User: Fold these one by one.
Assistant:
Number 1:
Amino acid sequence: MSELIFFKPFFKQVLWGGHKMKDFYGYSIPGDDTGEAWVISSNPHGQSIVRGGTYDGKSLGELWEHHRELFGGIEGAEFPLLVKVLDANDHLSIQVHPDDDYAFRHEQGGQGKTECWYILDCQQNADIIIGHRAKTRKELEQMIGEGRWDELLRKLPIHKGDFFYIPAGTVHAIRKGTLLLEVQQNSDTTYRLYDYGRLQNGEPRKLHLRQSMDVITCPHMDQNTAGPVISRGGYEICTLAEGPYFTVTKWNIKAEASLEQKYPFMLIHVISGEGTLDDQAVKAGDHLLVPAGYGTIHAQGHLELITTH
Ligand code: ZN
């Protein structure tokens, strides 16, 4: 008998963290400097743990290892995705990730990273960095060499509900006052391009300029992946991104909806509201796995969901 599998997040305290995850979702965070909740994670540095049901107390990594049938028997040493909620109380460093090919060649067979961000909440006049303004690779190297960061980095205003698709090779950074949901390839390969000249314990953090310049897409190309909002009886649905690593869909349910799980696995992130999924109560901040072969999920209530497969 197939069941919905709910997870408890792994929390990470960081210099730039805050307490919005407690304020918004009632999470018992370890401190007022909680920057990351790894809500769907099989990463050995922090696993999400099943809450209730048949698999209570098991980690996602254990399910992946010993219950591959829950994931339709798909191949792979690691669960392919990592999903986090991030609460940024300060600017994060400016980063770029390599693609699979570059990571494989330069990072001991590692994986690249494509990711996406859904803005859960942000302060007024908040912004984000996506992309850069150099027209050629030569100009990119020149601007980086001369430290012309304000000119180079592309700052965009953000609002609650905005979505950004960030393929490997895209310069990106989260900035102060932003709470977001991040869906990404399960990989650790990150190159730091710029850290605002800040010091940590008296030292600047390590930058990876050479690797960054190798992998940055030049010129930057905006990726507007979101499809139209389609209105159906009782709910609206919008495909935010459909790519080789993940498909992300937004559901705005006003009364009820049927969600079909026809993939090896599907993740559901409850963004706001409350209601039920097949008679199980859910509320904002819940993150769950719908296993292979589950069939149709009946959702009721006032719910904003993000689904990923
Ligand atoms: Zn990133």
Number 2:
Amino acid sequence: MIRRLWVQLALAFTLVTTLSVLMTALFTNTRASADFRTFLAQSQVQQLDLIPRLTEYYATHRTWNGVETVFASIRGMGPRGMGPGGPGMMRGPLELMLADAEERVVYASVSGSGSAPRLSHDDMRQAMPVVVDGTTVGYLVARLQRDTALSAAAQHFLAQLNQTLIQAGLLAGAIGLILGVIIARGLTAPLDRLARAAHRLASGDLTQRAPVAGPVEVSDAAEAFNAMAASLEEAEQARRRLLADIAHELRTPLTVIQGNLRALLDGVFPLEKDEITTIYDETLLLSRLVADLRELTLAEAGQLRLNRTAVDVSAIIAQSAALFTAQALEKQVTLHTDCEPRLPPVLADADRIAQALNNLLSNALRYTPEGGTVRIVAARAHQPSCASPDTDMICIRVIDTGPGIPPEDLPHVFDRFWRADRGRARAQGGTGLGLAIARQLVLSHGGSMGVESEPGKGACFWFTLPVTHTSVTSQPLDASYSW
Ligand code: ADP
């Protein structure tokens, strides 16, 4: 129980309040009896008309020499039994000290105190000024003698004061305890709720959210917790979606292989080369799917090894175009390249960039009908069609005259396993991972990839790469990355 934050806070509040009230009471008590004695002494001085007498003496003589006569004249009048609180407030004689304007003692009624040449700081606190013609010409200090006992009435007054102080202390302590508990509970309740939500999240309930309440620090922590919980939930949903997608993608070729093998075994299909080729093609699709998945996972995890050098983009484009020339001729599609002259080099892994570009080209050729055109355009990235207005980038666009992509599909084209027409794309050997991999490759180079399309008028896939200021090192492309 004592380890709970609210209990510790409440105890701390109570301790601080009680201690401060006790200190105040102790201090007030000490001061009160001293100030009360001063008050009694000053009241008697007033009754003896001492200040007006001293004022008159100084006004007449212009010096304090011989002032003892004033004190001698009042000695017989003794204040005994004439205190301000009525008769019997004090029973001892007064100690009187007079100092000049420079605080030098010129008269002391008791020899012990008279030996001090100047008034102390404490004396000055109690001193009554003697003012003549608007100028302070001296100070009178009056106090009860140290051993003077206070009368019963005065003692009763002080006892009452002490009692009031103790009651005030107890009341303040009790209020401190109540306030301490209320404030500490207010502070720790949101923390408790946050801890409970964290426990439930840890036990697998990813929908848990903590209420955002309490002091700024605690509500900030709750907001951070909620953001973390939301991203964990999102990641979990993405993981489940991915697993479901992978299972779905693997199941189709496996079903085809299984069905065909069963048919061969049962003698439904003849054991001929064509049948075995179909099965073999499905295994190719399977291994490609697995290879693509591995590549995408590595790229997303930032674990793909990139051999970055200064690369001439025009050279990569020329090589990719050459790679697809035969396919374009076969499909009767015109393949153009259009590179801005003197393009600066980019800092990239040439093989990986060729891989991304080849994927775009392969798609463009696949979707462009006979008689259409596919253009590869490279320029500095200030064209309005490129999303990046950064002039330190180069933008490469692959523009086709195919069917294009409907606006509602545009946000999904880079998603894993997304295909406008699943069956058809798979039949053509597509895994639905090509664009996701290409985009991830470009992202890991510090670039970006996007698409613009108008249905019926073709599609424009573009990507940007950062320009480097080092000169190009000629590097042969690795043919294994061609699409
Ligand atoms: P796949 O390997 O199945 O082609 P991609 O990730 O490369 O997978 O492409 C995903 C989907 O995006 C394709 O199935 C297709 O529907 C669409 N797509 C890609 N490129 C084009 C294009 N140039 N024109 C029209 N649709 C395209």
